[in-house]
TrEMBL record:
Signal peptide: none
InterPro entries: IolE/XylAMocC-like, TAT_signal, Xyl_isomerase-like_sf, Xyl_isomerase-like_TIM-brl
Segments of this protein annotated with the region Disordered: 297-316
Protein known as: TIM barrel protein
Species name: Streptomyces mexicanus
Amino acid sequence: MGRFTHDFDRRGFLRAAAAGTVAIGAASVAGALPAAAQTLAPDAGPHGAALSIPKDAIGIQLYSVRDKVYDLGFRAVFEELSRMGYKEVEFAGYTQNPSILGRQITLQEIRTLLDDNGLRAIGSHIGIGAFRSNLQQELDKAQILGMPNIGTPDAPSGTQTVAAYQAAAEEFNRWGEAASARGLKLYQHNHWAEWAFAQDRPEVRLYDVFLNNTDPAHVYLEMDVYWAFVGQFRYPGFDPAAYVRAHPYRYTLFHMKDGKTDPNAADGYDMTEFGAGDMRYQRFIHAIGPFGNHHGIWEQDTAPGTQPDPPGSLGAAQRSYTALADLLS
């Protein structure tokens, strides 16, 4: 987390490790898991085939450069990201070092900096607690910044039972209706724990409970591809890309995060900057189908402090942008 202020603990829910028995080909509560979500697609599509993640709107989750946002401020960071070629940003807090301006920056000032640098706010990660206590205020902030989506990186529930995930789905449905009324899309961002099996029903995958009990008109999904592959490693029996093929309109955002295979790691991978790993992104981008309204967002949780500084995390952002643009060409 560093000194970049947040309203949530991004990994708080990971403290509760999945305890359900691993079963393959789990059935969902609302019916059997679609065959598409169990079917693996080929490694690559036809050469030159149109991709559903456009390379001219590559985004960045600002958590990846949180140290620079705090130390240098939004102005300097936005200028650098725009120069690199990024077009969209996803927020992970709206604050910077107050000494930069002698006070905290305002939302309207951030919006002006976005506009001045040709950037668009595509979404923001908000803690579930803020949705419960200040939903309308969070929607206000989203509208000031001009973003079409607002979401949470928190798991739907910290209790890994079918009933808990069903109850969480109803809560998300209410929040989603409120967001829709304001012209916004509410989304949930996965980590690996959502792909676990329910403690009380080991044949049921928790992700399927949430997916099948949320209203597709009001609740959307941001697939973090890295964590989905980690989920596949920990709880086999599903194909991340097939979920997108089966529900293309619900997956408006993707976290394009890379990892190196490490069979000795609990997750099966070690997180790295994009292009330095070996996750099967070539296959993924061709396997998710032709729907053309997906947004690719680069994120690397470990970017700050993992390479020489300067340029530090901004160097990782530059190299990852180049690799991601090349992949999507």
